[in-house]
Amino acid sequence: MSGRAQRALALLPPLAVLALYAVAHQQGWVAVPCAAWGVWATWRKEPLPYRRPVFLIAGALAVVAGGVGSLVAPTAPGMVPPLLLGPLGTGLAVSAVYAICAGRTLFGWTWCALLAALSLTVPWTPPVAVAAGAVFAAFAVVMFAQGGGARGGWGGALGFALFLAVTAATGLRLERTVHGSEGAVMELLSAWMRDNLLPRGFGLEGQLGTPRQSRVEASDRVLFEVEGDPAQRLRSVVLGELVDDRWHQLRGERGGVPESTGTAVITLTLLQELGRALPTPAGSVVEDASALPLPGGVWSGRDLRGRSLRIRFPGDEQLPVEPAPTAEAVRVSEGLRRELESFRAGLFAGQDSARGKASAVEAFFREGFEYTLEVDLTGRGHPLAVLLRERRAAYCTYFASAMAILLRMEGIPARVVGGFAPSERNPLTGVVTVRERDAHAWVEVYLADEGRYVPFDPTPWRSRDTLLPRGSPNLASAALEAVGAWVRRGFNAFRADPWGALQGVARSPWLWGAILAGLVWRLRRHVRAPRRALARRALEGDDRRLVALRAEYLKLLAARADLRAAPAETDEELLARLEQRHGPEVRERAEAFVRGYQQARFRGDATVDLQGLREALDALGKCLGRLAA
Amino acid sequence: MKRRRWSFLMSPEEHDSLRAMHDLYLGLLTPLGRAVLWGAIAAGMLALGGLARGIVQLFAFSAAALIAGALVGWPFRPRVRLQRHLPPPVSAGDRLEYRVSVQNVGWRTLRQVTIQERGLPADVRPAEEPEVIPLLRPGEKAEVRVALHCKLRGVYPLRRLQAASAFPSGLFKWPVRTGGEDRLVVYPRFTPVEGFEVPHGRNYQPGGISVASHVGDSTEFFGTREYRQGDRMRDIHWPSYARTGRLVVKEFQEEYFVRLAMVLDIEVHSAREEKLLEQSLSVAAGIADVLARREYILDLFAAGPRIFHFQAGRALAHFDHLLEILASLESGSRLDFAALEAALLPEAPRLSAVILVMMTWDPKRAALVRQLQERGVAIRVLCLRPGVELTGLDPSEVVRLG
User: Fold this and answer.
1) Taking a C-beta distance cutoff of 8 angstroms, is the pair A408, A330 a contact?
2) Which of A52, A591, B32, B262 is the most exposed, having the fewest neighbouring CB atoms within 10 Å of its CB?
3) Chain B window 170-189: which residues touch A at a Cβ cutoff of 8 Å?
């Protein structure tokens, strides 16, 4: 095949892809000149010269032209925005044609394939289908030529036909599979991306229902860390309004920042976005201007990931005293009241006080129910009626919701509170790590005699602990976790405030400690080095000339007498071996050198006869040489 | 193969895993196959944003073509015998081209056969796409040219010569690895050194030329004379006896040569210094070339954590041997001065001059030079590190490159 024919063959896919681009995105103003340029360049006797600067400039100009062109003649609306597709498509089109015409087929075809993918992001119409078919056909022709089918006669044609048949069958099957598993694949991918790639937040919802079927994940993802001794529960959201059988967050006037009366202090570091809700202990004050108090004594704040917040609280999990709530705090819909009425009857028998009644309901749930992460309350009536009637297993929000409603039906103001029940303290660092699985819901009951809301927790912890064991990790895990926490905190702090984080690092005593340790180590090396030199000098002597002579002596024995001194061999032993192998004359010569060397080396002879030693060594060398001859 | 020093700025192909993936990419796919693979990847990525019909079709048929190419191509794997014909070594930065003879030893006609090296090190990369043999009938022989770009000096094994056929898909190459292992030597980049003068006196060298050429023990042929009582029979010069009818014996004399030592400092602490070492070795190769063209004996000391001492002879075609040694030197993390002194100083009385190619200049190195000077050895010191002042040396002892 001639060069021109080869170039024409290689140009087929770009031409087809340009046609597809023109049809799919109405970009004829790009495709037609490019195609004409390609045909002209192919028609030439010689291929276009490939020069990298020219190529880069052509690509850049094409991108600019495409950007301008997309303002005048935008591409068809599709998955890729016109302002991006215009420059990208034009750049790819020009680069592909230039590369093909300059003999760089790999680049040319690759950019064609990318342009084809971009072109097919539009809705599937008959013209697009025809153009796409032309692209597939053009690539098939090139495959036929590149695979040797054109030269292979019938055998080659049959082989290629088999390949096409397998491609068609596999492609159709694959296409059906992709379409058929659209939901599953996308779900899998989005779950994977959500878990691994995308930063995600965690927020307790502002509404809470009790669906018939529900499932929660007990994820180990770390949400935040607390330094200090947090309370048993950290409150994030107060759900005090029951509308249409769903709990809603308390609304009302946002009050001013309350006075800080607490004595306990914790530092909370958010490692994930938790929505706007800040987990805080009961009655706490957040000492940060970006945190705002909300009705119900909870706090909110935005973009606090990576920040460390100082929180002051009473320490005994006591909410502040407040006036008696309005009638809204005991509201329950008539339908729900009717359905649950039968369960209320025996529940409060013998209890007169609000606290007693609340404790009775709490014990009822704690002792008579099981905890599960997969709730199934299918059956007759309201899900909570099914829960109470059949004593099915559920998780915290169901128990809290049921308890609050039962108390409201008794005329006792009650609300559901969402937050966290931390349970994992690192024994090495003392830091409490709070994970997604620590999310929790409980009930706060207004006790008129105390004038405040008091927390009650109806969740059956015995059963929950079996399912989600709590406790501190062992030492190895704690060490790993401590390192992980340190890295997480550092990363988040740097992310939130790079300059502040750097300043923190510069002020860190650990850093200066490490630098100091490094300096001491370096200094110690310098101190040790002369000591080592002294030791070496004690072994080898001060006089380098002597050392060199001895090295030469040993080398001579190795080279000419084939005798190597063992590491712990004495001079006498070596001489004995030498005599055994080469006779007494050689030993005599060697001994002359060794005695002279020892005299100079060990007897502190001030007038070392180096010349004599040299002569003794030369005599030994000649003697060995003679023997060898 | 040389151990590479990790650097943040090292090229992707110096990472083993990336290089292995790239090796598979080049070894299994034709250029068209690679383009189709990129098309499938692009379509797959776009499909994440929504399953548009065109995108799914492009993804499905591109992936299917690659799968089908692999499946259908399997029976057409080539059965060939390969033989490399390596030329003399090249220098770092050069392109090495060599021939590979290919013989079809199977019973089937082979189509679209390509020959390429697989598993190449990071410093030796394919220079171009492999040539294609369109047709190779059973028993038929052909030759192809393989081109490699040798980026860095070294001694590299060539282990995996691959023959592959792209028939019938033109996308996927089923590889068959064959051919024996060869050794590829890449010499250091040669820096020509003009007018490098060495101060020299002629020292007696026991052993004469024989030692100069390869370490041994003999003397130099001087002439002939008449036989005297007591002469050795083996010294009789039989051609002279045949011509003259009288016994004539050969006479020998001890030789005097100029013996030089070149000390190569290979202490390196960073990837940046590796480059400096390469420059030093390049200059050392140039100096060795100058010396090899004259009647010098050259001792080469590579000084790092261990000291390697190579003895090379007079100008008797040993220059290649020297370059090979320079090619295979590896850097070390420290210079053991005590070991260097123990190896170098005993040789000092027989040395006329020592050329030191240093990575840096510090008191320890200066002390070594002083000791050599005290023994009456002439010194020439070269240090390529920018900004280093060779203090304590006479200007004539410092080698400056133009």
Assistant:
1) yes
2) A52
3) 170-171
pLDDT in tens, A271-295: 777 777 888 888 888 888 778 888 8
Cβ distance A189 to B345 less than 8 Å, yes or no, reads no
Residue A263 has pLDDT above 80, yes or no: no
Kindly identify which residue of chain A lies nearest to residue B50, measuring between CA atoms: A79
- What chain A residue is nearest to B165 in terms of C-alpha separation? A147
Alpha-carbon distance B136 to A322, whole Å? Answer: 96
Backbone angles phi, psi at B148, to 5 degrees: -125, 145
Backbone φ and ψ of A6, nearest 5°: -60, -45
Contact B58 A547 (CB under 8 A): no
Q: How far apart are CA A163 and CA A144, in angstroms?
A: 10
Say if the ipTM goes beyond 0.85: no
Q: What is the enclosing helix (H) or strand (E) of B369?
A: helix B363-374
Q: What's A256's DSSP letter?
A: -
**Contact yes or no for A144/A164 (Cβ under 8 A):** no
pLDDT at residue number A186: 61
pLDDT tens for residues A163-221? 999 999 999 998 888 887 766 666 666 566 555 544 444 445 567 778 888 887 777 77
- A528 or A213, higher pLDDT: A213
Distance of CA A408 to the CA centre of its chain: 46
What are the residue ranges of helices labelled H in A508-609? 509-540, 544-560, 571-582, 584-602
DSSP string, B87-145: -S-EETTPEEEEEEEEEE-SSS-EEEEEEEEES--TTEEE-SPPPEEEEE-TT-EEEEE
Pairing mode, strands B90-91 and B182-187: parallel
B57 in A contact zone (CB under 8 Å): yes
List beta partners, residue B183. Answer: B157
CB A340 within 8 A of CB A364: no
What are the chain A neighbours of B338 within 8 Å (beta carbons)? 536
Residues 6+ apart with CB under 8 A from A311: A265, A266, A267, A268, A280, A281, A284, A285, A286, A287
Cis geometry, peptide bond prior to residue A295 (ω within 30 degrees of 0): no
Q: How many CB atoms lie within 10 A of CB A621?
A: 19
SS3 state of residue B215: coil
Contact in structure between A374 and A468 (CB atoms under 8 Å): no
Helices A396-409 and A383-390 cross at an angle (nearest 10°) of: 90
Residue A117 to residue B39, Cβ atoms within 8 A? yes
Q: Which of A148, A171, A544 sits opposite B134 (nearest CB)?
A: A148
Any residues with CB less than 8 A from the CB of A608 and at least 6 apart, and which? A543, A545, A546, A600
- Looking only at the bridges linking them, the beta strands covering B353-358 and B255-265 are parallel
Q: Are A615 and A627 in contact (CB under 8 A)?
A: no
Q: Do B169 and A78 count as a contact with CB atoms less than 8 A apart?
A: no
In this structure, what is the dihedral angle of CA atoms A512, A517, A518, A519, given to the nearest 10 degrees?
Answer: 90
Chain B residues close to A118, C-beta within 8 Å: 42, 46
The model's pLDDT over A458-478, given as tens digits with 9 standing for 90+, comes to: 999 888 888 777 766 777 778
Q: Which B-chain residues 33-52 have CB contacts (< 8 A) with chain A?
A: 34-36, 38-39, 42-43, 46-52
Asked if residue B390 lies in contact with residue B361, where contact means CB atoms within 8 angstroms, the answer is yes
Considering only CB atoms, which chain B residues are within 8 Å of A139?
32, 36
Report the DSSP beta bridge partners of residue B257. Answer: B203
What is the rounded distance in angstroms from the CA atom of residue A382 to the CA atom of residue A333?
A: 12
Query: Which of A228, A215, A225 minimizes the C-alpha distance to A438?
Result: A225
Tell me whether B70 touches chain A (CB under 8 Å). Answer: no
